[in-house]
Amino acid sequence: MIRLIGIDPGLRFMGWGVVDVEGNRLRHVADGVLATQSGDDVPRRLCDLHEGLVTLIRRYQPSEAAVEETYVNRNGSSTLKLGYARGVALLVPALAGLSVHEYGAMAVKRAVVGTGAATKEQVSMMVRRLLPGAEIKRADASDALAIAICHAHHRASAQHVAMGVRMA
Question: What are the positions of the active site (predicted)?
Answer without folding.
Answer: 8, 68, 140
